[in-house]
Design goal:
5-stranded mixed beta sheet; 13 strands; 21% strand
Length: 340
């Protein structure tokens, strides 16, 4: 992006639905599961679940209220580019961009729904937003991410008995990106590993396609072999993309002021900060409070860091994540300038 206009991540705002749900909720349903002792499924103390009638659009609207409260209604009304990602779209045939734009009273020139970004969707959206803005396609972009699978898929009666059910939590967040030098996006690295795209599967008993009617409930098709592969890929990919960004901006990983990653489990969190040679104090960790927030993990945690004073003006925050079974990974560095 050398010679291009400066594009900044000006602010983020988030929303967590309902009251925290404790580990004892899942303990009452626990069934025999050969994967229960796997490091991948050591559950958090708490997580949040989307309400029974709460849509992804509802969640985004509630997250966006934080931006409106801080910056005024115009900051949303005048957005040129809307980029969205929902773990569970409200309708299977199209993304939520149109409904979100209408709900927020926006008339954007660009509406893009990203699905392949998964847990790294916020990084992917930052990359798309900065390139569109730098090329003159608009002055402001809103990134809207919703994770709503915990209270819908993983709380199904048959699924919540499995070890995997206690890990996810629900939440939503929005990010405001604009032509500005306030909090510049220093660099972004996005990598697609298409050879792993088929390694995340749904398991339904009896077997059927996800859209066919039937008695079985869908869950993620984990096996010990698949878990070992995902652990190896995630351990490697997140540091790799973060190091790539560090190299290009001339920053040692040890000098990252705050690392914000997706939050799959405690093992990944520990391994990533050790690989980047960072102490726990410089890696935001809300896993025990929120569980695995999938694509909403980075912006929800970034909002928490800003609100709690963990980021000061001039600090470099590194956002990094991998998606699904390792088919995508991304990292983005921002020099934080404070909430304007």
């Amino acid at each position: 992006m050398t010679g291009q206009p400066s594009v900044s991540l000006l602010d983020v705002a988030s929303y967590l639905p309902g009251e925290p749900i404790g580990a004892d909720y899942y303990a009452q349903f626990a069934d025999s599961d050969e994967l229960r002792d796997n490091v991948m499924f050591r559950g958090p103390s708490f997580r949040h679940h989307v309400g029974p009638e709460e849509s992804a659009t509802d969640m985004i609207e509630r997250a966006a209220q934080g931006l409106i409260d801080r910056h005024g209604r115009d900051v949303v009304d005048n957005v040129d580019i809307l980029i969205t990602h929902a773990q569970m779209p409200d309708m299977p045939f199209y993304g939520g961009g149109g409904a979100i734009a209408h709900r927020l009273g926006m008339r954007p020139s660009w509406v893009l729904d990203l699905h392949n970004g998964g847990c790294a969707a916020f990084v992917l959206a930052l990359n798309v937003a900065r390139r569109l803005i730098a090329s003159g396609e608009g002055r402001t972009a809103l990134i809207a991410v919703a994770q709503n699978a915990a209270g819908q898929v993983f709380d199904q009666p048959g699924v919540r008995r499995k070890a995997q059910a206690a890990i996810p939590g629900d939440g939503a967040a929005v990010g405001l990106v604009a032509l500005s030098d306030q909090s510049p996006i220093l660099d972004v690295e996005c990598r697609t590993y298409g050879e792993y795209a088929g390694d995340m599967t749904l398991a339904i008993d009896p077997a059927r396609k996800w859209w066919q009617p039937g008695p079985g409930e869908a869950c993620i098709g984990f096996t010990e072999t698949k878990i070992a592969k995902v652990l190896a890929r995630g351990n490697r990919q997140v540091p790799e993309v973060a190091f790539a960004v560090c190299d290009r901006i001339g920053l040692s990983s040890k000098d990252i002021d705050l690392l914000v990653t997706n939050q799959p489990n405690r093992v990944f969190l520990r391994n990533w900060r050790e690989a980047l040679e960072l102490p726990e104090s410089r890696h935001l960790d809300t896993y025990d409070e929120c569980g695995n927030l999938f694509g909403a993990g980075i912006p929800v945690n970034l909002d928490r860091a800003i609100s709690d004073g963990r980021l000061e003006a001039g600090d470099v925050v590194m956002m990094a994540a991998f998606a699904h079974a390792g088919d995508f990974a991304g990292a983005a560095a921002v020099r934080w300038g404070g909430r304007g």
